[in-house]
Design a protein that fits this description.
With about 750 residues, this protein is α/β, with parallel strands linked by helices. It contains 28 helices and 22 strands. The strands form 5 sheets. Strands 11-12-10-13-14-9-17 form a 7-stranded parallel beta sheet. Helix 1 packs across helix 2, helix 4 packs across helix 9 and helix 17 crosses helix 21. The longest helix is centred in the last third of the chain and has 23 residues. The protein is globular.
């Protein structure tokens, strides 16, 4: 009976990689090319056929899930349990440090602080130095410390680099304080695990020699996602014997904003002389037209290893290009297409909507709810369930109904105003005893004795803002109230001060909520705040969100890496949205966005839809859009649609493919430009303003139109409007401009 060889299941390139034993090996594994199968078969071959002990093999991955999958596959190939290191970077370094911690100044029983522990330490450091807690938030400070540790930069080196920059000087001091507290508590954070292991190996040659002898064969998965310190760890271990195999795809490096360094994989052959390069270009996931279209896009990147995916699958359907009128039609089209697909026998789980920003999920959630299409938001929460949306809606509820104690309890400390749980409990009990609302109580000077001086100021400001907009709501559009609440409560500023990617995403979601408001105002210019709040309450209650069962998947393109779906929709293919406005500021930024587009396209197995809205209300502003440059880069041979990309040339500088010069700034959606516009519109303090206006001046109001200023006093201005009649408006709140 003929013996079955496990390698017979591999294609020639996979087999070539699996049979390679000694010397450096770079496996360039394109999307869907079977990299995990290749890696596991190589390890199994080393153990079973080459006689390499599992003891001498180190396999490093990025997630525990990937490590577990790799271990299961290897054990299924060679049988039985294996004692080898198949683990994440952090787990491998933790195991090394448990043996040698004293050599880097720690006890062997050191503890590892999780993010919650880290935040507690940073908060104490900020408080000890009497720094502004809203400016130096835990999330921001920790992101700065982490980025420095990923570059193997100590607090002392950071301080030297900071020079006279006040912000960086304070951050360097906080970094030093943070490190001293961790050291005092015999604790490390996750970044320390790798950084201290590198220091151990660099400063103790005998330890380095021990692990070089131990790990004679090293394999690293997703090598394109390694950062500087991870690269150094691997390089130190592998330089002794050179038996290192890295697997990755530079075309799928989409985490540079998180520290990933694409140069690690691009320069691998320079780091390890005599590298054998094997390209896995046969794709087992997607149909031919999808692959060819994706190849035509990624070919425009200059900084990449040349490769071209191919498949022996049939060509399948061409990519469907849809030029929708606006974002609502975009979402309705997707809902209809899904229902048609389900009618033809597909399951809802076969469909995925992949978007560039979380804020884009809102229109799809609403369209799916209206069409009763079950969905789940993968890697995130429903739009109306997001914290920032619930917070801002609570502020609006307070303006509509100042007696809403539930709404006040939610936002009394958002942003932070020094109101702890105990103080809040006292306020709640006091309000119940008095028989009034908590907001009324907070306006009472007698209650301020419960609060610190700083809290008193913050609370007074909040009470004044809510009281002013409550009194003026009849004179304002809902969008004017919304702008004022975002800015005057300090909510947006607190997010800006965090200076993190997550905080930016929250701001984008807040700006997107203004799009919701504008849609209602366009449909009914006279809509009241109470009517709007009723509609929002109904919208938030509609729930077709299915976490576990047969449902359409909504997710960002970044979250989709490593997944696949029979049918994929990629909406928002517009300049300023995808690629994002900031990306256009650098060639590297555009190339990473192009890689993200490539990743999204190659998630599709059978059918791919690329959708652009000709107009979009996004981030609270109505825009006529321009199609994404990535659409123009697709070979038209692989596209199908009533109007193919390329006809839209408004503002286009007719750059050749791959040398796109960009669009006029006025045409590009930039969310934080809109934020600056909103900030300017509510810049004047409450009770002030109109200092440049005189009685008799003609002015324009956002809700009442044009009119004539009759008189004004310290806090109000009286205007006779042409159509709305005489109105007494609050200074600093009334949205007026001179005609």
């Amino acid at each position: 009976m003929k013996r079955t060889n496990a390698l017979d299941a591999l294609n020639p390139q996979q087999r070539e990689a699996a049979l390679h034993k000694d010397g450096p090996l770079l496996i360039l594994a394109g999307a869907g090319s079977g990299k995990t199968s290749t890696m596991t078969h190589r390890i199994a071959h080393l153990i079973k056929e080459e006689g390499v002990s599992p003891y001498h093999i180190l396999a490093v991955t990025f997630t525990n899930k990937a490590a577990a999958e790799m271990r299961d596959r290897i054990e299924s190939l060679i049988g039985g349990g294996i004692r080898m290191w198949i683990m994440t970077f952090h787990a491998a370094c933790l195991r090394i440090l448990r043996v040698h911690a004293e050599r880097v100044g720690y006890g062997k029983d050191f503890v590892v602080y999780d993010p919650t522990d880290q935040k507690v330490v940073v908060k104490s450091c900020v408080k000890e130095r009497n720094l502004d807690a809203q400016k130096f938030t835990s999330a921001y400070v920790l992101s700065v410390i982490s980025s420095r540790k990923e570059k193997s930069m100590s607090a002392r080196q950071f301080a030297a680099e900071a020079g006279d920059n006040p912000l960086n000087k304070n951050l360097a001091l906080l970094y030093g304080d943070y490190e001293r507290i961790l050291k005092k508590n015999n604790a490390m954070d996750f970044d320390d695990l790798i950084m201290n292991t590198v220091l151990l190996l660099e400063n103790h040659p005998e330890v380095l020699a021990e692990y070089r002898e131990r790990f004679r064969y090293i394999m690293v998965d997703e090598y394109q996602d390694t950062n500087f310190i991870q690269y150094r760890f691997i390089k130190l271990l592998a330089e002794g014997h050179g038996n290192i195999c890295v697997v990755g795809d530079d075309d799928q490096c989409i985490y540079q904003w998180r520290g990933a360094d694409i140069s690690n994989i691009l320069n691998f052959e320079k780091d390890f002389k005599g590298t054998k390069v094997v390209k896995l270009e046969q794709n087992y996931r997607s149909r031919g037209n999808i692959l060819n279209a994706a190849n035509s896009v990624i070919a425009n990147n200059r900084t990449r290893k040349a490769k071209k995916l191919w498949t022996d699958k049939e060509d399948g359907d061409k990519i469907c290009y849809v030029n929708a009128y606006d974002e609502k039609e975009e979402a309705r089209f997707v809902a209809r297409a899904i229902e048609e697909g389900v009618g033809e026998g597909r399951n809802y789980r076969d469909f995925a909507v992949l978007y560039r920003t979380n804020a884009q999920s809102r229109t799809f959630e609403e369209a799916f709810s209206a069409a009763t299409v079950p969905y789940r938001v993968l890697g995130g929460v429903r739009y109306y369930d997001r914290k920032e949306i619930k917070d801002i809606v609570s502020y609006m509820r307070l303006v509509q109904n100042p007696a809403d104690d539930v709404a006040l309890s939610r936002v009394i400390n958002a942003p932070k105003r020094g109101i702890g749980a105990k103080t809040l409990a006292k306020l709640t009990a006091h309000a119940a005893a008095e028989g009034g609302s908590m907001l009324e109580l907070l306006a009472d000077e007698r209650v301020h004795a419960m609060l610190s001086a700083k809290s008193q100021i913050a609370v007074r400001q909040m009470v004044d803002v809510i009281a002013t907009y409550t009194a003026e709501q009849a004179n304002l559009r809902i969008s004017d109230i919304y702008d004022g609440l975002m800015m005057r409560t300090g909510y947006v500023k607190a997010l800006e001060d965090q200076n993190t990617v997550e905080a930016e995403s929250r701001i984008e979601n807040l700006l997107e909520f203004k799009s919701v408001i504008l849609e209602y105002e366009m449909a009914d210019p006279d809509i009241t705040l109470a009517e709007f709040m009723e509609k929002i309450a109904l919208m938030a209650d509609v729930d077709n969100h299915d976490r576990n069962e047969n449902a359409v998947t909504l997710m960002t393109l970044h979250s989709a890496k490593g997944l696949e779906f029979p049918v994929v929709f990629m909406p928002g293919m517009e300049e300023g949205l995808f690629p994002g406005g900031r990306a256009a500021e650098s060639e590297g930024g555009i190339e990473e966005e192009r890689r993200l587009c490539y990743v999204g396209m190659t998630r599709a197995m059978e059918k791919l839809y690329l959708i652009r809205a000709g107009a979009r209300t996004i981030y609270g502003r109505y825009n006529h859009t321009l199609e994404s440059r990535f659409l123009r880069e697709i070979d038209r041979t692989y596209l199908d649609g009533e109007q193919l990309p390329g006809g839209d040339t408004t503002g286009l500088l007719h750059a050749p493919v791959g040398d796109f010069d960009g669009f006029s700034d006025a045409k590009v959606i930039r969310p934080f430009d809109q934020l600056r516009h909103i900030r300017a519109s509510v810049a004047k303090p409450l009770g002030m303003g109109l200092t440049d206006y005189d009685n008799g001046d003609r002015v324009r109001h956002t809700k009442f139109g044009e009119g004539l200023i009759l008189e004004s006093d310290e806090r109000t201005v009286t205007v006779m409007f042409d159509s709305a009649g005489k109105k007494v408006l609050a200074k600093g709140v009334a949205p007026l401009e001179k005609v």
